[in-house]
Give the backbone structure.
Amino acid sequence: MRNINEDTITLAVIESFAKCEDARLRTIMTNLVQHLHAFAREVKLTEAEWFKAISFLTEVGHITDDKRQEFILLSDTLGLSMLVTAQNNSKPANCTEATVFGPFFLEGAPVYRNGEDISNGAHGAPCYVKGQVRGADGEVVPNAWLDVWQSDEDGFYDVQTHSGDGPTEHRARGRLQTDAEGNFHFRSILAEAYPIPHDGPVGRMLAATGRHPWRPAHLHFMLQAPGYETLITHVFRNGDQYLDSDVVFGVRSSLIADWIRHEPGIAPDGKVFDVPWYTLDYDFVLNPSEAIA
Ligand code: BEZ
Ligand code: FE
């Protein structure tokens, strides 16, 4: 293979994968090269632009560690994460839709009983959340596990505000199980809109392309129950100014709910607040997994 030119380079690279025994890997690499080369031809990529892209990806790598995943942020802000989520999570129309996972989930969050306060010292207006988990045929789903995680009133997740390498005090995140009727309820804090981390190369890309870094207020949920597909989703707060410009393209109309504001007074668990407090009522519908469908 010699004297490769701009017309023959694409086929030459594709043919170089001929001995790849993993058929899926060969398909992915072949298509990746086809699209990359088509992109470079279409925009007539200059050498300076190619080098700028290499420097950008190098910075994305350098800022990434076990607490900061800039590659996921890049995928999220380019819509790739939501595309992959959407094309892998088609469900019957009555099932709750999935959305992006995001980088702030933690394994091993504390387990709470229904009714307990998961905020664990995180700051924000008191908020009571309740709902029911059902299957696609309307059956209640008892003992389903719910993982919940959210930011505080300043827009930070606990993992963003912890200093040092000490043990993480899980704040505004927890695990709980539905009761025999599929119901769950817990206390937390009001979810607020927040900007994704934008002090790195992804933030500069957003600024350079005239985009803001904000996500509308939301609560993250992951639901797991035997016999059902795992559901990774959010519930978004109705009225948020960023619902139509989520920086990671994750909003679905079916996932928007009203957080009801209550004047200072007695909350559902008998606590008396001298500040406004909120309630959210949201039900989830799980898709049966293929094994039992
Ligand atoms: C989140 O909602 O936690 C999130 C999702 C994508 C990028 C950054 C944060
Ligand atoms: Fe989030």
About this structure: The first helix runs from residue 9 to 15. The pocket of benzoic acid (ligand 1) is lined by residues 73, 76, 100, 102-104, 196, 215, 248 (CB under 6 Å). The longest strand covers residues 126-135.
